[in-house]
Design goal:
Rossmann fold; 14 strands; 3 domains; alpha/beta; globular; Immunoglobulin-like; 4-stranded mixed β-sheet; 385 residues; 4-stranded antiparallel β-sheet
Length: 385
């Protein structure tokens, strides 16, 4: 069972509680239809819009080809025209004109639109694996900077030089309709960054497996979501083997999973870690999704409830020096210890140990001075001597 099934199961529980719920997938694998055991041919014919499962639950898989025609027409047409001048045929040009980020930005436009229209009470977003998710969360900030600093200059400059440049350039420069398309897209995205960073509205739930390589990827995701201001309120560990298994063949797996689960809970504390067992069958259809929801959530538990609004730690820069700020509500100066382990900062408070994964630009630094004020521990990070 993958993370898409967990998103689908969460959607099923929310709909049962009476919420108007949309489960949206931006994972290129697109397996929502499979999770609900739908006729995929029928589903894909309607995938450009939300497909109702019942009166409270709908699912939506973005179809990037249809999104290009719907939202990216002028931009795509210009990219195709440029690619054609290089000798690429029409089919290849149309495929290459689907630029990185188009699918993620399209998803953000719909989230923003549905929020403004109040069409749904809850949107469950099945995000892509770590690398694509990082691009997804960083896009609003990047696009906002481009629109404020580069877009006006670029548009005015090309407007001035276009008549002359088009006479000598191997391809025509973009027309004003190209820039109008960009402006229109940006207007549809305005405010989505505030929506994503508000912990009372948006929370992140990381799905991992009890395996060392997957754990490392989840740790990196946790760091970068924190770096971009999003709040992770739960970590879900999937495919956990039952301790009742007595077969010798599984003993090494049980031992390995036990070690990883201990490391998971230590690393992500105080963020709660939920365990989901490895099911004896494939999870397909609403009935089995309900079984997953029952295993994941307590009876009557509301998956949309806001459980955490405080970020466990933040990164900053003060007077040219990098800092890690950590909330320690019950700590005193005498019981805090600091040391570096690989690309992690380890903070010890009495018997409690907190691991803080560091972003790449801080991974080579070591802890220096530290101060505890107003229950916030600030650790200065400096170059190793």
């Amino acid at each position: 069972m993958g993370k898409t099934s967990l998103a689908a199961a969460t959607g099923v529980r929310l709909a049962e509680l009476g919420y108007r719920t949309l489960v949206m997938s931006i994972d290129p694998a697109h397996s929502l239809a499979d999770s609900f055991d739908l006729d995929t041919d029928l589903f894909h014919l309607k995938t450009s819009d939300p497909l109702p499962i019942n009166d409270k639950l709908s699912i939506f898989e973005l179809n990037i080809q249809k999104e290009v025609r719907r939202h990216w027409g002028e931009i795509s047409s210009y990219v195709i025209s440029v690619l054609r001048t290089t000798g690429i045929n029409d089919v290849e040009a149309e495929e290459l004109a689907i630029l990185p980020g188009m699918e993620e930005l399209s998803a953000m436009m719909y989230i923003n639109q549905y929020r403004r229209e109040n069409r749904y009470d809850v949107i469950v977003l099945d995000a892509a694996p770590t690398a694509e998710s990082m691009r997804f969360i960083s896009m609003p900030t990047t696009l906002d900077w481009y629109m404020k600093h580069i877009f006006p200059f670029q548009r005015n400059l090309l407007k001035a030089v276009r008549p002359i440049a088009n006479r000598v350039a191997p391809f025509e420069l973009p027309t004003d309709s190209y820039f109008a398309n960009i402006r229109s897209l940006f207007e549809k995205l305005e405010g989505v960054d505030e929506l994503m960073e508000d912990p009372h509205i948006t929370s992140v739930r990381l799905v991992t497996n009890p395996e060392k390589m997957v754990l490392r990827e989840t740790q990196r995701a946790f760091v970068y979501f924190s770096l971009h201001g999003l709040t992770v309120d739960t970590v879900i560990v999937n495919r956990v083997l039952s301790q009742d298994i007595q077969d010798v063949w599984f003993q090494e797996w049980l031992k390995s999973q036990g070690n990883i689960l201990h490391e998971l809970e230590e690393y992500f504390s105080p963020v709660p870690v939920r365990r989901l067992p490895l099911f004896s069958h494939e999870v397909l259809g609403q009935q089995r999704l309900q079984e997953v929801a029952k295993a994941l959530y307590a009876e009557g538990e509301d998956p949309s409830a806001v459980t955490r609004t405080e970020k466990p730690y933040t990164f900053g820069k003060q007077d040219g020096k990098y800092e890690v700020r950590l909330r320690l509500p019950f700590a005193t100066r005498g019981e805090i210890g600091l040391f570096k382990k690989g690309d992690e900062l380890v903070v010890e408070v009495g018997t409690l140990r907190r691991h803080i994964g560091l972003p790449r630009f801080m991974a080579t630094l070591v802890p220096g001075k530290a101060k505890l004020e107003n229950r916030i521990l600030t650790v200065e990070m400096k170059e190793a001597q």
